[in-house]
Protein backbone atom coordinates (compact mmCIF):
# COMPACT_ATOMS: atom_id res chain seq x y z
CA UNK A 1 0.00 0.00 0.00
CA UNK A 2 1.59 3.24 -1.19
CA UNK A 3 -1.19 5.83 -1.28
CA UNK A 4 -4.02 6.52 1.16
CA UNK A 5 -6.73 8.99 0.18
CA UNK A 6 -8.56 10.89 2.91
CA UNK A 7 -11.52 12.94 1.62
CA UNK A 8 -12.29 15.67 4.12
CA UNK A 9 -14.99 18.26 4.66
CA UNK A 10 -12.67 19.84 7.28
CA UNK A 11 -14.99 18.75 10.10
CA UNK A 12 -13.94 17.05 13.37
CA UNK A 13 -15.35 13.74 12.07
CA UNK A 14 -12.95 13.90 9.13
CA UNK A 15 -10.08 14.29 11.59
CA UNK A 16 -10.97 10.88 13.07
CA UNK A 17 -10.31 9.37 9.65
CA UNK A 18 -7.05 11.26 9.18
CA UNK A 19 -5.75 10.04 12.53
CA UNK A 20 -6.34 6.43 11.47
CA UNK A 21 -4.88 7.07 8.02
CA UNK A 22 -1.72 8.50 9.58
CA UNK A 23 -1.35 5.41 11.74
CA UNK A 24 -1.73 3.15 8.70
CA UNK A 25 0.66 5.31 6.65
CA UNK A 26 3.33 4.97 9.32
CA UNK A 27 2.99 1.20 9.40
CA UNK A 28 3.04 0.86 5.61
CA UNK A 29 5.36 3.75 4.67
CA UNK A 30 2.58 5.22 2.57
CA UNK A 31 1.77 8.81 1.69
CA UNK A 32 -1.58 10.48 2.34
CA UNK A 33 -3.57 12.60 -0.08
CA UNK A 34 -5.78 14.92 1.95
CA UNK A 35 -8.56 15.91 -0.44
CA UNK A 36 -11.10 18.68 -0.01
CA UNK A 37 -13.58 19.63 -2.71
CA UNK A 38 -14.69 23.25 -2.94
CA UNK A 39 -18.06 24.04 -4.54
CA UNK A 40 -17.60 24.97 -8.17
CA UNK A 41 -17.69 28.69 -8.91
CA UNK A 42 -20.13 28.32 -11.80
CA UNK A 43 -23.03 27.13 -9.68
CA UNK A 44 -25.50 30.05 -9.74
CA UNK A 45 -26.25 31.87 -6.53
CA UNK A 46 -29.43 33.76 -5.72
CA UNK A 47 -29.78 36.82 -3.57
CA UNK A 48 -32.13 35.85 -0.69
CA UNK A 49 -33.70 39.32 -0.69
CA UNK A 50 -34.22 39.98 -4.40
CA UNK A 51 -34.24 36.46 -5.79
CA UNK A 52 -31.86 37.59 -8.54
CA UNK A 53 -28.71 35.73 -9.55
CA UNK A 54 -25.40 37.32 -8.69
CA UNK A 55 -21.72 36.63 -9.31
CA UNK A 56 -20.54 34.21 -6.64
CA UNK A 57 -16.93 34.06 -7.90
CA UNK A 58 -15.50 36.24 -5.09
CA UNK A 59 -17.14 33.99 -2.49
CA UNK A 60 -15.72 30.94 -4.25
CA UNK A 61 -12.23 32.45 -4.28
CA UNK A 62 -12.48 33.21 -0.57
CA UNK A 63 -13.68 29.65 0.15
CA UNK A 64 -10.83 28.26 -1.94
CA UNK A 65 -8.22 30.28 -0.08
CA UNK A 66 -9.69 29.41 3.31
CA UNK A 67 -9.80 25.71 2.44
CA UNK A 68 -6.20 25.76 1.23
CA UNK A 69 -5.02 27.41 4.43
CA UNK A 70 -6.96 24.92 6.54
CA UNK A 71 -5.54 21.93 4.65
CA UNK A 72 -2.01 23.22 5.12
CA UNK A 73 -2.63 23.78 8.83
CA UNK A 74 -3.99 20.25 9.27
CA UNK A 75 -1.07 18.75 7.36
CA UNK A 76 1.40 20.63 9.54
CA UNK A 77 0.09 19.06 12.74
CA UNK A 78 3.18 17.98 14.75
CA UNK A 79 1.49 14.64 15.46
CA UNK A 80 1.72 13.89 11.73
CA UNK A 81 5.31 15.09 11.29
CA UNK A 82 6.73 11.70 10.28
CA UNK A 83 4.13 11.09 7.55
CA UNK A 84 3.97 12.63 4.08
CA UNK A 85 0.61 14.38 3.67
CA UNK A 86 -0.20 16.00 0.33
CA UNK A 87 -2.97 18.63 0.65
CA UNK A 88 -5.13 18.60 -2.47
CA UNK A 89 -7.99 20.88 -3.49
CA UNK A 90 -10.59 19.63 -5.91
CA UNK A 91 -13.23 21.58 -7.77
CA UNK A 92 -15.33 20.28 -10.63
CA UNK A 93 -18.91 20.18 -11.79
CA UNK A 94 -18.87 16.44 -11.18
CA UNK A 95 -18.01 17.02 -7.56
CA UNK A 96 -16.40 14.77 -4.97
CA UNK A 97 -16.60 11.46 -6.82
CA UNK A 98 -14.67 12.71 -9.85
CA UNK A 99 -11.99 14.17 -7.64
CA UNK A 100 -11.64 10.90 -5.76
CA UNK A 101 -11.40 8.89 -8.99
CA UNK A 102 -8.48 11.05 -10.15
CA UNK A 103 -6.27 10.14 -7.18
CA UNK A 104 -5.57 6.40 -7.85
CA UNK A 105 -5.36 5.47 -4.19
CA UNK A 106 -4.77 2.02 -2.68
CA UNK A 107 -7.13 2.77 0.20
CA UNK A 108 -9.71 5.44 0.99
CA UNK A 109 -10.18 6.34 4.66
CA UNK A 110 -13.09 8.62 5.41
CA UNK A 111 -15.04 9.81 8.39
CA UNK A 112 -18.81 9.53 8.51
CA UNK A 113 -21.32 10.55 11.10
CA UNK A 114 -23.99 8.75 9.08
CA UNK A 115 -27.56 9.92 8.72
CA UNK A 116 -30.85 9.06 10.32
CA UNK A 117 -34.55 9.63 10.01
CA UNK A 118 -35.77 11.86 7.18
CA UNK A 119 -32.21 12.96 6.34
CA UNK A 120 -31.21 9.33 5.73
CA UNK A 121 -34.25 8.76 3.52
CA UNK A 122 -33.59 11.88 1.45
CA UNK A 123 -29.81 11.97 1.24
CA UNK A 124 -28.31 8.78 2.60
CA UNK A 125 -24.62 8.77 3.42
CA UNK A 126 -21.74 10.25 1.45
CA UNK A 127 -19.71 7.29 2.68
CA UNK A 128 -22.11 4.84 1.06
CA UNK A 129 -22.02 6.82 -2.18
CA UNK A 130 -18.22 6.78 -2.25
CA UNK A 131 -18.22 3.04 -1.54
CA UNK A 132 -20.37 2.36 -4.59
CA UNK A 133 -17.97 4.15 -6.96
CA UNK A 134 -14.59 3.55 -5.32
CA UNK A 135 -12.13 1.35 -7.20
CA UNK A 136 -10.21 0.43 -4.04
CA UNK A 137 -11.07 -0.64 -0.49
CA UNK A 138 -12.80 1.95 1.69
CA UNK A 139 -12.38 2.21 5.46
CA UNK A 140 -15.13 4.21 7.15
CA UNK A 141 -14.40 5.66 10.61
CA UNK A 142 -17.38 6.63 12.75
CA UNK A 143 -15.84 7.72 16.06
CA UNK A 144 -12.39 8.62 17.43
CA UNK A 145 -10.02 5.62 17.46
CA UNK A 146 -7.17 5.77 19.96
CA UNK A 147 -5.18 3.01 18.31
CA UNK A 148 -6.41 1.29 15.16
CA UNK A 149 -5.47 -2.35 15.64
CA UNK A 150 -8.61 -4.45 15.07
CA UNK A 151 -8.54 -7.81 16.82
CA UNK A 152 -12.23 -8.71 16.96
CA UNK A 153 -13.41 -8.59 13.36
CA UNK A 154 -16.81 -9.59 12.01
CA UNK A 155 -17.09 -10.41 8.30
CA UNK A 156 -20.51 -10.25 6.66
CA UNK A 157 -20.76 -13.09 4.16
CA UNK A 158 -23.07 -14.06 1.31
CA UNK A 159 -23.31 -17.09 -0.97
CA UNK A 160 -21.34 -15.63 -3.87
CA UNK A 161 -18.73 -17.69 -5.71
CA UNK A 162 -16.77 -14.52 -6.54
CA UNK A 163 -15.68 -14.51 -2.91
CA UNK A 164 -13.86 -17.83 -3.37
CA UNK A 165 -10.42 -16.37 -3.84
CA UNK A 166 -7.62 -14.95 -1.75
CA UNK A 167 -8.33 -11.41 -0.61
CA UNK A 168 -5.50 -8.92 -0.23
CA UNK A 169 -6.41 -6.50 2.51
CA UNK A 170 -5.15 -2.91 2.25
CA UNK A 171 -3.48 -3.17 5.64
CA UNK A 172 -2.19 -6.10 7.62
CA UNK A 173 -4.97 -8.24 9.04
CA UNK A 174 -3.73 -11.60 10.26
CA UNK A 175 -5.62 -14.80 9.55
CA UNK A 176 -6.10 -15.43 13.24
CA UNK A 177 -8.29 -12.32 13.52
CA UNK A 178 -10.32 -12.97 10.34
CA UNK A 179 -12.32 -15.76 11.95
CA UNK A 180 -15.84 -14.55 12.66
CA UNK A 181 -18.21 -14.78 9.70
CA UNK A 182 -21.91 -14.04 9.87
CA UNK A 183 -24.71 -14.92 7.47
CA UNK A 184 -28.12 -13.33 8.04
CA UNK A 185 -31.25 -15.26 7.08
CA UNK A 186 -34.17 -12.96 6.38
CA UNK A 187 -37.82 -14.02 5.94
CA UNK A 188 -37.38 -13.88 2.14
CA UNK A 189 -34.18 -15.96 2.08
CA UNK A 190 -35.08 -19.52 1.07
CA UNK A 191 -31.60 -21.01 1.34
CA UNK A 192 -31.16 -24.09 3.54
CA UNK A 193 -28.70 -23.76 6.45
CA UNK A 194 -26.93 -26.99 5.44
CA UNK A 195 -26.42 -25.63 1.93
CA UNK A 196 -25.01 -22.38 3.31
CA UNK A 197 -22.58 -24.29 5.51
CA UNK A 198 -21.46 -26.48 2.60
CA UNK A 199 -20.82 -23.39 0.49
CA UNK A 200 -18.95 -21.70 3.33
CA UNK A 201 -16.73 -24.75 3.84
CA UNK A 202 -15.76 -24.51 0.16
CA UNK A 203 -15.20 -20.78 0.56
CA UNK A 204 -12.93 -21.30 3.59
CA UNK A 205 -10.94 -23.98 1.77
CA UNK A 206 -10.50 -21.85 -1.36
CA UNK A 207 -9.26 -18.86 0.66
CA UNK A 208 -6.99 -20.93 2.87
CA UNK A 209 -8.80 -19.89 6.03
CA UNK A 210 -9.15 -23.01 8.17
CA UNK A 211 -9.66 -21.29 11.52
CA UNK A 212 -13.08 -19.76 11.37
CA UNK A 213 -16.57 -19.72 12.80
CA UNK A 214 -19.77 -19.20 10.84
CA UNK A 215 -22.77 -17.80 12.65
CA UNK A 216 -26.14 -17.97 10.91
CA UNK A 217 -28.86 -15.91 12.47
CA UNK A 218 -32.39 -14.87 11.64
CA UNK A 219 -33.39 -11.21 11.47
CA UNK A 220 -35.89 -8.98 9.71
CA UNK A 221 -33.18 -7.41 7.56
CA UNK A 222 -29.55 -8.15 6.76
CA UNK A 223 -28.14 -4.85 8.10
CA UNK A 224 -29.94 -5.27 11.41
CA UNK A 225 -28.54 -8.77 11.72
CA UNK A 226 -24.98 -7.71 10.94
CA UNK A 227 -25.09 -4.74 13.30
CA UNK A 228 -26.69 -6.65 16.16
CA UNK A 229 -24.24 -9.52 15.84
CA UNK A 230 -21.26 -7.15 15.72
CA UNK A 231 -22.50 -5.40 18.84
CA UNK A 232 -23.15 -8.69 20.67
CA UNK A 233 -19.56 -9.85 20.19
CA UNK A 234 -18.13 -6.34 20.74
CA UNK A 235 -16.51 -6.28 17.31
CA UNK A 236 -13.96 -3.54 16.59
CA UNK A 237 -14.23 -3.81 12.78
CA UNK A 238 -16.92 -4.93 10.32
CA UNK A 239 -15.79 -6.18 6.90
CA UNK A 240 -18.19 -6.23 3.93
CA UNK A 241 -17.71 -6.96 0.23
CA UNK A 242 -18.78 -5.04 -2.86
CA UNK A 243 -18.92 -5.45 -6.62
CA UNK A 244 -18.03 -1.77 -7.05
CA UNK A 245 -19.72 0.01 -9.94
CA UNK A 246 -22.34 -2.69 -10.36
CA UNK A 247 -23.64 -2.17 -6.86
CA UNK A 248 -23.24 -4.19 -3.74
CA UNK A 249 -23.72 -7.94 -3.83
CA UNK A 250 -26.83 -9.76 -2.56
CA UNK A 251 -26.81 -8.82 1.10
CA UNK A 252 -25.78 -5.25 0.35
CA UNK A 253 -28.39 -4.44 -2.23
CA UNK A 254 -30.94 -1.72 -1.67
CA UNK A 255 -30.38 0.17 1.57
CA UNK A 256 -28.26 -2.47 3.34
CA UNK A 257 -24.89 -0.79 2.78
CA UNK A 258 -26.31 2.58 3.72
CA UNK A 259 -27.80 1.14 6.90
CA UNK A 260 -24.59 -0.59 7.96
CA UNK A 261 -22.40 2.42 7.22
CA UNK A 262 -24.80 4.91 8.77
CA UNK A 263 -25.57 3.00 11.93
CA UNK A 264 -22.39 1.12 12.79
CA UNK A 265 -20.54 2.41 15.83
CA UNK A 266 -17.29 0.69 14.81
CA UNK A 267 -15.14 1.10 11.69
CA UNK A 268 -16.37 -0.59 8.51
CA UNK A 269 -14.02 -1.88 5.81
CA UNK A 270 -15.53 -2.33 2.35
CA UNK A 271 -13.61 -4.69 0.06
CA UNK A 272 -14.11 -5.03 -3.69
CA UNK A 273 -14.48 -8.48 -5.24
Quick synopsis:
With 273 residues, the protein is α/β, with parallel strands linked by helices. 33% of the residues lie in helices and 21% in strands. Helix 7 packs parallel to helix 8 (256-263).
Protein architecture, described:
With 273 residues, the chain is an alpha/beta fold. It folds into 2 domains: 3-44 and 52-111, HUPs (Rossmann fold, 3-Layer(aba) Sandwich); 153-272, Rossmann fold (3-Layer(aba) Sandwich), CATH 3.40.50. The protein has helices spanning 12-28, 57-75, 96-101, 117-123, 126-133, 193-207, 222-232, 256-263, and strands at 3-7, 31-37, 45-46, 53-54, 85-90, 107-111, 138-141, 153-156, 180-185, 213-218, 237-242, 268-272. The strands form 2 sheets. Strands 5-2-1-6-7-12-11-8-9-10 form a 10-stranded mixed β-sheet, sandwiched between helices. Strands 3-4 form a two-stranded antiparallel sheet. The protein is globular and about 65 Å long. The model is unreliable at 116-124 and 245-254 (pLDDT under 50). Residues 1-142, 218-272 form the UspA domain. It comes from Spirosoma terrae. Belongs to the universal stress protein A family. It holds the Pfam family Usp. This is Universal stress protein.
Amino acid sequence: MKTILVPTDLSPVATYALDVAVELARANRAEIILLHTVLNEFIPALDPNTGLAYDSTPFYQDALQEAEETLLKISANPDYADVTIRPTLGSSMNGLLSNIAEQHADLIVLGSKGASGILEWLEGSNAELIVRYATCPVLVIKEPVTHFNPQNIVVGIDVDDKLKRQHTYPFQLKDDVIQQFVYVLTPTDNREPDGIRDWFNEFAKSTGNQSYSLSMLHDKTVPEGILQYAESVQADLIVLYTHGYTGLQHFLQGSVAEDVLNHSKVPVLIMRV
